[in-house]
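Observation: inputs received (chain + adenosine-5'-triphosphate).
Thought: call the complex predictor directly.
Action: predict_structure
Action Input:
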Amino acid sequence: MSISIGRVERVIYLGAEALVAEGEFLGYRAVFKQRLRKPYRVPELDQEIVSKRTVAEARALVNLRHHGVRVPKVLFVDPLAGLIVMEKIDGVVLRDALQTIDRESSCYAMSLLGEEVGKMHKLGVAHGDVTTSNAILGFDGSVYLVDLGLSKHVEDVEDMAVDVHLLIRVLESSHYAHREELLKCFLKGYRKLLGDEEVREVMDKVAEIRTRGRYVEERRIRKSN
Ligand SMILES: Nc1ncnc2c1ncn2[C@@H]1O[C@H](COP(=O)(O)OP(=O)(O)OP(=O)(O)O)[C@@H](O)[C@H]1O
Ligand SMILES: [Mg+2]
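Observation:
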């Protein structure tokens, strides 16, 4: 007799940091996120980095879910192997969904993203990689956050602003035609959680980060000419 607790069926994503596969685990539809080893790193250091990031991501998922943020449920963690098994979110990656759904639905989905990021910030956690690829528009109509590997404790308003800044850059590169509208929709949801005052503070910091970025870019161009 063979008893299996799970099985991997197909790879759904292969990035620089991780391989993500879909399958079944303890009767759940599951996603297996396997952090990849880097051949150029000293093996002991590589092991430590992989284990630390795996634990950090799993811990963030469990903690945030406990506090009501829509993130996948963690089913199993193996730090040494760099593996997290989590519930599969049935849906479409937000980046792709925004290419097909109408403007009103896109706006609504972005406001839901704003609410989830707002919930995180209110809990004092920055996501670290807020992009439309790290959000899933579920078939249940909710927006879920994934990819918590870079999440961190908020030390000051800059950590929150970096999340919003990164999202703005993604809107500029992947959703250019509707970037302003989508940002407005995001901020509507974000404001619901954080309130006008705090969002104003965050957006002032975002403006500062963008000015700094432009300054660095201009210096780089001047130097190379
Ligand atoms: N729980 C999940 N349910 C459904 N799809 C998922 C889930 N987790 C990840 N995915 C899909 O896999 C893709 C990659 O996952 P993720 O973003 O966590 O990995 P990554 O970008 O390689 O992470 P990292 O930045 O840590 O290297 C996501 O964009 C999403 O499409
Ligand atoms: Mg990702």
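Thought: report the result.
Final Answer: Residues 12-13, 15, 17-18, 20, 31, 33, 72, 86, 88-89, 93, 129, 133-134, 136, 146-147, 149 surround adenosine-5'-triphosphate (ligand 1) (CB under 6 Å). The longest strand covers residues 6-14.
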